[in-house]
Specification:
Blueprint (H helix, E strand, L loop, with lengths): L3 E6 H9 L5 E2 L2 E2 L1 H16 L3 E6 L6 H4 L14 H26 L3 E4 L5 H11 L6 E5 L13 E5 L4 E3 L9 H4 L4 E3 L6 E3 L3 H11 L14 H11 L2 H9 L10 H8 L1 H14 L13 E3 L5 H10 L3 H4 L2 H4 L1 H14 L1
Helix pairs in contact: 1-2, 1-4, 2-4, 7-8, 7-11, 10-11
Length: 336
């Protein structure tokens, strides 16, 4: 029985898998395909009642809105880390068609759009399921997706063993401690974190995002951002109360006074909210949206494994593909 969706961030998984120990067939890297498929099988086995859907990156509308978005990725790699990151990106790019083909043969649905990233497609699916009895499991290491967490949505990073649900977002545990937005209050010793996805988004917009090369407002990190949100509930509430004199400006930390006093900093915050906001799904309409349904094909997948020398899968191919066969069977029963 289909109880919801498992939304898989294809690029996040693909990049991670491609960074593993290199495997090749001829001149073609295959480690990304191999490890991606192993992660996929494990996830489908773990959550058999959820229908897997892979969401893929298109060329984001964010590049046109903010030219510095991920700008250094197109520049010449210089440092050792930059060279390695570029190598992995190129490796994944060459393996992406193979991953997509394998997933199609396993019956996994895939979504593509010319102008939207995987984040945006995940947000669309979350909004579509709102008000239904279905659940959504977001499978990504991208912490931006945490803003989509709500009672029927859970975020899970299988690569780093982290997961966040609406009931645990503000609770101290090994998962929330590792996601970076939370701190122990020095006075009470209590764990203080953002309370919901909206606060997560606003804190990120204050801080900026180094990985996407989005600058923050300056001077406000996770501790300052969380403290602001805990006290005022939202950035909007803080700015309104500061402007109308409800709060004593003299008692406000200088970094927050600067944010409230300088429109340039507020403009950066508003820009970041546009770039990062997945909650309102106010980004551009999808262009060239394509959904590949996938059709479980044991013979076709077996041939694929022979072609790319995935011998460990072939040792017991029917057992390896059993979770996907079960998904296909359930799909047929529901359609009947």
């Amino acid at each position: 029985m289909n109880k919801g969706l498992m939304v898989i961030d294809a690029s996040n998984w693909g990049f991670c898998a491609s960074s593993k120990k290199q495997l090749t067939v001829g001149d073609q890297d295959t480690q990304g395909v191999y490890y991606f498929l192993n992660m996929l099988r494990s996830a489908v086995s773990m959550f058999p009642v959820l229908t897997p859907v892979m969401v893929n990156d298109g060329r984001s509308w964010r590049y046109d809105f903010y030219p510095d978005y991920k700008a250094s990725r197109d520049k010449e790699a210089v440092t050792k880390n930059e060279i390695e990151q570029k190598r992995v990106r190129l490796s994944y790019r060459s393996q992406k068609p193979l991953i997509n083909k394998a997933c199609e043969l396993l019956g996994v649905r895939q979504m593509f759009s010319l102008n939207l990233e995987a984040d945006d497609l995940a947000a669309i699916l979350v909004k579509r399921y709102e008000g239904t009895d279905k659940r959504i499991l977001l499978m990504s290491g991208d912490k931006d997706w945490i803003q989509l967490v709500r009672p029927y949505v859970t975020w899970m990073d299988v690569i780093n063993d982290r997961r966040v649900g609406s009931a645990t977002l503000a609770v101290k545990n090994k998962h929330t401690e590792s996601i970076g937005l939370g701190y122990d209050d020095k006075k009470t010793g209590e764990w203080i974190s953002v309370k919901n996805g909206q606060q997560w988004l606003e804190c990120k917009a204050l801080m900026g995002d180094k990985s996407d090369e989005i600058g923050g407002v300056g001077g406000i990190g996770d501790v300052g951002g969380i403290a602001l949100l805990h006290k005022f509930g939202s950035v909007g509430n803080f700015l309104n109360q500061y402007a109308d004199g409800t709060i004593d400006a003299a008692k406000v930390p200088k970094k927050l006074r600067d944010f409230a006093d300088f429109n340039e900093k507020q403009e950066i915050f508003r820009r970041n909210m546009i770039l990062m906001d997945l909650i309102s799904t106010s980004f551009p309409k999808a262009r060239g949206l394509k959904v590949v349904a996938g059709n479980f094909d044991l013979e076709g997948f077996t041939d694929f494994c022979h072609e790319w020398s995935f011998q460990s899968f072939l040792t017991s191919i029917e057992d390896w593909t059993a979770p996907f066969a079960a998904q296909a069977h359930n799909k047929e029963k529901e359609a009947a």
